[in-house]
């Protein structure tokens, strides 16, 4: 029943997005422009030299893969769940024979499927213009897929947990904006995290944001050794466990407050 219900929600969301795909493709284009701009900045900055081992082709490959990973991991529940709580739609989710989390999961999957053609075309154009000179190994590809799946889980659950704070406060947009800013700074969008200096690099390795975005990219491009990959995967697993526990705590307290005020 839950599986059929989940598939039905995905179909509903998919047809809704396809009806307005021009708007959502424009939205996707905006998301992809930031890493593209930084790619161009670093390509110009590095010239024919290199920065800590990163040459021109390395920056091109890094940001090309980053664009792809960002589109697969970006959770639209960032903003939609809070809105649905405020406008009362969330109460309808509670009446369904499905956990409320099914709605943002279905919307997330549907959005990615609906926008996939545009993303593929955009990345293909980048590859045609700038090239993509990377020697991919089977091991790195397998590790990348594993890391990408876990990055998706971490980023989605982290955003969903933050959005559930809308059950108890109307300041949710500030929290989500801070989250996006931290991802921008520490997940590898401004600069690959392995190129960050001193304390900032240590901080990025400790915080969960790198493991939502930059880490899978570094794995695929062969920028990490075996031990770094294993340690990163272990850290991703820890992040998943922690964020699920936090989600349960926020959900329990949030839904109690929501129902107590007649949500």
Topology, pairings included?
Elements: H1 2-19, H2 21-46, E1 50-51, E2 54-55, H3 56-73, H4 77-86, H5 89-95, H6 102-130, H7 138-163, H8 172-186, H9 198-206, H10 214-220, H11 226-260
Antiparallel strand pairs: 1-2
Structure characterization notes:
With 263 residues, the protein is mainly alpha-helical. It has one domain (3-257). It is built from eleven helices and two strands, in the order H-H-E-E-H-H-H-H-H-H-H-H-H. Strand 1 and strand 2 (54-55) form a beta hairpin. Helix 2 (21-46) runs antiparallel to helix 3 and helix 4 (77-86) packs parallel to helix 7 (138-163). The mean pLDDT is 87.
- The shape, in one word, is globular
- The string of secondary-structure elements, in order, is HHEEHHHHHHHHH
* Overall pLDDT: 87
Helix content: over 70%
Keywords, separated by commas or semicolons:
single chain; 263 residues; mainly alpha; two-stranded antiparallel sheet; 2 strands; globular
Please provide a brief summary of the model.
By secondary structure, the protein is mainly α.
């Amino acid at each position: 029943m839950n599986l059929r219900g989940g598939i039905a929600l995905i179909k509903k969301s998919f047809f809704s997005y396809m009806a307005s795909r021009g708007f959502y493709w424009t939205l996707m284009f905006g998301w992809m422009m930031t890493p593209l701009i930084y790619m161009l900045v670093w390509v110009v900055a590095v010239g024919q030299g290199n920065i800590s081992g990163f040459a021109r082709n390395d920056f091109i490959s890094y940001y090309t893969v980053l664009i792809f990973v960002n589109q697969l991991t970006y959770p639209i529940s960032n903003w939609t769940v809070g809105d649905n709580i405020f406008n009362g739609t969330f109460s309808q989710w509670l009446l369904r024979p499905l956990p409320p989390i099914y709605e943002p999961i279905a919307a997330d999957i549907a959005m990615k499927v609906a926008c996939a053609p545009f993303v593929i075309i955009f990345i293909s154009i980048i590859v045609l213009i700038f090239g993509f000179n990377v020697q991919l190994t089977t091991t790195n590809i397998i590790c990348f897929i594993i890391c990408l799946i876990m990055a998706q889980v971490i980023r989605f659950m982290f955003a969903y947990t933050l959005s559930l704070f809308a059950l108890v406060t109307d300041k949710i947009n500030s929290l989500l904006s801070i989250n996006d800013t931290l991802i921008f700074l520490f997940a590898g969008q401004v600069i690959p995290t392995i190129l960050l200096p001193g304390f900032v690099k240590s901080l990025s390795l400790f915080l969960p944001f790198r493991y939502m975005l930059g880490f899978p990219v570094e794995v695929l491009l062969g920028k990490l050794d075996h031990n770094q990959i294993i340690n990163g995967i272990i850290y991703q697993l820890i992040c998943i466990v922690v964020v699920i526990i936090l989600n349960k705590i926020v959900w329990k307290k949030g839904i109690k407050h929501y129902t107590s005020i007649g949500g």
